[in-house]
Amino acid sequence: MKPFDYQRLAAVEDLGQRVSEGDRFLAGGTNLVDLMKHEIETPERLLDISRLELGQIEDGGDGGLKVGALVTNTALASDARVRERWPLLSAALLAGATAQLRNRATTGGNLLQRTRCYYFYDTARPCNKRNPGEGCGALDGFNRIHAILGTSEQCIATHPSDMAVAMVALDAVVNLRAPDGSERQLPVEELHRLPGDEPQRDTVLEPGELITGVQLPAPPPGRQLYRKVRDRSSYAFALVSVGAILDVVDGKVDSVRIAFGGVAHKPWRARKAEQALQGQKATEENFLMAADAELADAKGYGGNDFKIPLARRTLAAVLRDAAGAEGETTA
Amino acid sequence: MAVISVNGQEVTLNDDPRTTLLDTLREGAGLTGTKKGCDHGQCGACTVLLDGRRVNACLVLAIQCEGCEVTTIEGLGEGGDLHPLQQAFVRHDGFQCGYCTPGQVCSAYAMLEEVANGEASDVTGKGAVRLSAEEIRERMSGNLCRCGAYANIVDAILDAAGELDRKGEASR
Question: Is this prediction's ipTM beyond 0.90?
Fold first, then answer.
């Protein structure tokens, strides 16, 4: 690990103008410390935010919830309100990582974790995300775990979070604070970006901007489900995951929200599939038709070709399960 | 100098912020029960309790723990005074080489408290959490055993959990 300076912050206001280019915020460290050991992240200074007062889950007004950035994945998944009203979020969190990691990983950090692309992690291989302009090892290499939607010739990495997929389906919003103290809000759906010709940028955050929390709006009607397809039944990243909230009234889709994980550089809100389903009969045929609408632009790179039919079938299966249990709300 | 508490004893941290909690325990405090496996948070051999919660000590910078309480395998039981979980691992042959065992035991100890707290896992259905072999396999997935003693580890944890229940203790 490269040497760095360490500074612990006592209050959000401590940030002031002190954030500079070589700084990284440190919270749970489950991803950042690992990346520093690999010398993929080489901060000049760590600003330890882990003792800031951002660890609470509070009533967010209008039936919503306000989740502090430092709430651990364990605490968020276990919260009785989340379990009851946002079961999609709890299920997604519990499908990710291990108890040891979830005890340490935070809400803000989970959103900002980096890809687990083999070539990003292997510093002996080219990677445009790690070293812009160097080339991409995955394009013609081992790309079984890589993206099928929204890729570029620069990068086909995926975003690894389960939690973020649920948040995108739930229309969650991140609260951000800039070093000058100004604040803004951004839908989680708009936080992450597609690689384009700047794959080194995972998100649209400005330098020094800090995630202070996530707002969950009141959940929409319907059954919430999260399904994660992976190589092991526990402790593996998603090959494909689907988060869905489906409300069927009189046999027809009254409202539906869908997000995919494991298929793109960001959690993928499937708006084409949602539009295709709106007002349609809740049938297997229509579920597959909606999946086809979303996946029409999907592109395989050899090793990950299987993800296209897998995503299609997984979405149809999740919608079938959700429609079959109309009225239930627990994932 | 920054200080942490390990098994009730004060341990002074060195002044290099790169030092992980794992290296502090093994190199600084001389507590070599906690093992270094992958050093990347993937194997669970370094599992310890940080303020009562199980964590991978290899991914925690020691300086972040200033003022915190750490419990290692040495704090659960040692020598002839073994914790019921350790005794159950011996009874059920829950290991071969033993390298992952301290992490397994610390992880299982915290896991039983999580179950007692009613914290759900990926395989928990509706209603109350009930310990089962399926729950143990899911909840212990962060502790790898390359000898493959998993079946006996699950049996040992189930056995110890039953014994602790009979004693009326969450896991102590």
Answer: yes
